[in-house]
């Protein structure tokens, strides 16, 4: 089971500060998989009761992601964000964090074999669209998978 407590609350810092539930401890082995979806799809499929149209509106086509924190990526170096986190972005990240905690076993199965209790990294790119985020993860050697529809 994964426990997903953020390193920080990311208030007043760029959205690009991804959240992790702990620091990676072991050298990475196993599949390098990232789950990616749009904010709109995540809200509709998983968090409709919390992520209302008012919250999602400005970030609907932006990408959310979850991957094994042992694997580094260059997403925010290659596609830097210029702004600071909005309240809506923070709320969306909080919902993604809650989702990761609630469905940790399902996410772990989708991310492939790894050490017990591995850390996750999750985030939202508030300025790059879904296709650009997918392309960057692929450049970093990740296998990109869609978020589960029924987790």
List the helices and strands and how they pair.
Layout: E1 19-20, E2 33-38, H1 39-46, H2 53-56, E3 62-68, H3 75-78, H4 87-102, H5 104-110, E4 120-129, H6 130-139, E5 143-146
Parallel strand pairs: 2-5
Antiparallel strand pairs: 1-4, 2-3, 3-4
Round the Cα radius of gyration to an integer and report it.
14 Å
Structural class: alpha+beta
Mean pLDDT: 78
Shape: globular
Q: State the low-pLDDT regions, or none.
A: 1-16
Q: Report how far the terminal alpha carbons are from each other.
A: 15 Å
Task: Estimate percent helicity.
Answer: 25-40%
The strand count comes to 5
What is the tally of helical segments?
Answer: 6
Oligomer: single chain
For the biggest sheet, the summary is: 5 strands, mixed
Order of helices and strands: EEHHEHHHEHE
Domains, number: 1
The share of residues in extended strands comes to 15-25%
Order of the strands making up the biggest sheet = 1-4-3-2-5
Summarize it.
By secondary structure, this protein is an alpha+beta fold. The protein has helices spanning 39-46, 53-56, 75-78, 87-102, 104-110, 130-139; strands at residues 19-20, 33-38, 62-68, 120-129, 143-146.
């Amino acid at each position: 089971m994964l426990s997903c407590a953020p390193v920080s609350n990311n208030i007043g810092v760029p959205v690009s500060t991804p959240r992790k539930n702990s620091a990676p401890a072991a050298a990475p082995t196993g599949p390098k998989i990232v789950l990616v979806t749009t904010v709109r799809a995540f809200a509709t499929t998983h968090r409709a009761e919390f992520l209302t149209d008012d919250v999602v509106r400005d970030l609907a086509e932006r990408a959310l992601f979850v991957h094994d924190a042992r694997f580094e990526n260059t997403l925010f170096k290659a596609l830097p964000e210029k702004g600071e986190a909005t309240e809506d972005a923070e709320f969306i990240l909080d919902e993604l964090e809650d989702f990761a905690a609630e469905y940790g076993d399902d996410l772990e199965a989708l991310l492939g074999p790894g050490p017990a209790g591995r850390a996750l990294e999750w985030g939202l790119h508030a300025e790059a669209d879904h296709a650009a985020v997918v392309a960057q993860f692929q450049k970093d050697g990740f296998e990109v998978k869609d978020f589960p529809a029924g987790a």
